Amino acid sequence: MASGTQAVTTPSISTDTSGLTLLGRQAGAPDDPDAAVLERVPNPHPGTRYCVRFTAPEFTSLCPMTGQPDFAHLVIDYVPRDWLVESKSLKLYLTAFRNHGAFHESCTVGIAKRLIDELAPEWLRIGGYWYPRGGIPIDVFFQSGEAPPGVWIPAQDVPGYRGRG
């Protein structure tokens, strides 16, 4: 190494996926969100505050009263501690709501609580932008507390339902 130069070291990042049951394997959609496996992987940057965003613009569940489909645009933001949610398991978990009857509030807040239970993030918020049911859009918002200082948390910027025109 030339005089005056320093070696650059990168942190050791765990890529061990041996404990995961869904990643890299064929997996069908679960029949029920409670039965869905939600997996986590180690945060490659523990101790560094940053925001992770998942957007599900075609989320679907069923109205528990009529059985008709309900549609939402979900935006999930979180600041991880030790764990990240494994994205394939999150997709399958969200897909499990397609045949699940629950009100908008139950789906939106339930997803947040499940992620908090599995990941123990520093902070989490979810915006559930639901399309009209009975002519009225019902949007549901939840966050676990104040956003941590010093972390860029972008606005969700999902426009409210405007109907035709």
TrEMBL record:
It catalyses: 7-aminomethyl-7-carbaguanine + 2 NADP(+) = 7-cyano-7-carbaguanine + 2 NADPH + 3 H(+). Its main location: cytoplasm. Pathway: tRNA modification; tRNA-queuosine biosynthesis. Its EC number is 1.7.1.13. One of its GO terms (molecular function) is preQ1 synthase activity. Keywords: Cytoplasm, NADP, Oxidoreductase, Queuosine biosynthesis. It is an enzyme of class 1 (oxidoreductase). The active site is at 63 (thioimide intermediate), 70 (proton donor). Catalyzes the NADPH-dependent reduction of 7-cyano-7-deazaguanine (preQ0) to 7-aminomethyl-7-deazaguanine (preQ1). This is NADPH-dependent 7-cyano-7-deazaguanine reductase. The lineage of its organism: Bacteria, Pseudomonadati, Pseudomonadota, Alphaproteobacteria, Acetobacterales.
